[in-house]
Amino acid sequence: MARRGKKITDAYKGLDRSRAFALEEAIKTIRERSIASFDETFEIAMNLGLNPRHADQTLRGAVTLPHGTGKAVRVAVFARGDKAQAAQDAGADLVGAEDLAEQIQNGEMNFERAIATPDMMPIVGRLGKILGPRGLMPNPKLGTVTNDVAEAVKAAKGGQVTFRAERAGLVHAGIGKASFDDQQLAENARAFYDAIVKNKPSGAKGQYIKKVSMSSTMSPGLKLDVATLQLQD
Question: How many CB atoms are closer than 10 A to CB 217?
């Protein structure tokens, strides 16, 4: 087993990781114990009472965080004609049809979000084995198969986060940067939690939210008090 370095060992020293921290307290504690010299990403992870192998327990969706993610997102759009122009005007980084598909087949994957108009899906569908495993396949449920490509591009670049429950019922996302203030991180975390709750699958039985934790790129992970994640009036 790999040995921890002195800095990370010190970060864990005296930390009671068995207790649940209130959200704002967790953010402050993570900041205090971070050992990074760069603008870390704050991440939230949730263990859910789901078995995504059952169709009625799959969880997939998107939420626009109120303060964005702090990350520049490159967007590729499959469209033609006026829709292609609208995507370019909205700030899409790559726009095309067969030519864009050929680039991807040749291994050029310089983007983090893919959007397509419905008429482009026969072309995009042939890229399923490439885009699917990377979580980049356009999907109507995520708003990435749409005729309103301009709005989809703006959402992707404006802080929209997509989520999907993995096989063990785990869902996670980056919800901001260390350069954000505490309130911005807390509001983003609550918005993400609220989206997970509102998208609860119909087949979910028993306890839905089992555990929630937060960490930054190079900090200890802390368990959160779920009650403090609920949106405040």
Answer: 16
pTM: 0.83
Measured CA to CA, the distance from residue 195 to residue 174 in angstroms comes to 14
In this structure, are residues 124 and 137 in contact, taking their beta carbons and an 8 Å threshold?
yes
Instruction: Name the packing angle between helices 182-198 and 23-33 (round to 10°).
Output: 130
Nearest to 114 by CA among 106, 167, 127, 63: 127
Helices (DSSP H) in the chain: which residue ranges? 6-12, 23-33, 81-90, 98-105, 121-125, 128-131, 149-157, 182-198
**pLDDT tens digits along 213-228:** 999 988 888 999 999 9
Give pLDDT tens digits for 16-62.
777 899 999 999 999 988 877 889 999 999 999 999 889 999 999 99
Tokens, residue 67: 């303060």
How many angstroms separate the CA atoms of 33 and 220, rounded? 8
Question: Token pair 């726009």 is at which residue?
Answer: 95
Element (H, E) at 135: none
Q: What is the pLDDT of residues 53-98, one digit of tens each?
A: 899 999 999 999 999 999 889 999 999 999 999 999 999 999 999 9
* Residue 127 structure tokens: 């890229």
Q: Are 23 and 184 in contact (CB under 8 A)?
A: no
Query: Rg of the Cα trace of the chain?
Result: 19
Q: How far apart are CA 106 and CA 101, in angstroms?
A: 9
